[in-house]
Amino acid sequence: MFLCDYHIHTPRCGDAEGDYEEYIQEALQKGITEIGFSGHSPQYFLPKGERKRESAIPEEELSTYIQEVEKLREKYQGRITVRIGLEVDFVPGKEEAMYSIVDFYSWDYLLLSVHYLDGWPFDHPKYIGRYQEEDINEVYRRYYRTLKMGVETGVFDVVAHFDLPKKFGFLATETIVEVEEVLQSCREHNMVLEINTAGFYKPIGEAYPSFAILEQANKLGLQLCLGSDAHRPHEVGRSFDTALSLARSAGFQNLVSFEKRKRTFYPL
Ligand code: ZN
Ligand code: FE
Ligand code: FE
Question: What pTM was computed for the model?
Answer without folding.
Answer: 0.97
